[in-house]
Amino acid sequence: YQRDLLTRLDEADEALRAAEEKQATMQAIADRASGYTPMLGP
């Protein structure tokens, strides 16, 4: 049971990280579309 719980926590952590990456990517696209170029990054 405990191992199953840890696996679920790990999967939730992965999903959260993926969602954050997706949000950051969308933000970067929005910034680029509006002509805003950050000092750091592409």
Question: Considering DSSP H and I runs of 4 or more, what fraction of the residues is helical?
Answer: over 70%
Rg, please? 16 Å
What oligomeric state do these chains adopt? Answer: single chain
Spans of 5+ residues with little confidence (pLDDT < 50)?
A: none
The pLDDT mean sits at: 86
Shape label: rod-shaped
The main β sheet shows up as: none
Which structural class best describes the helix and strand composition?
mainly alpha
Please provide the count of β strands: 0
Count of discrete alpha- or pi-helical segments spanning 4 or more residues: 1
Strand content: under 5%
Terminal residue distance: 45 Å
Order of secondary-structure elements? H
Write the layout of secondary structure elements.
Layout (H helix, E strand, L loop, with lengths): L1 H32 L9
Structure in a nutshell:
The protein has 42 residues and is mainly α. 76% of the residues lie in helices and 0% in strands. The chain has one domain.
Describe the 3D structure.
With 42 residues, this protein is mostly helical. It has one domain. The protein has one helix at 2-33. The longest helix has 32 residues, at 2-33. The N and C termini lie far apart (45 Å).
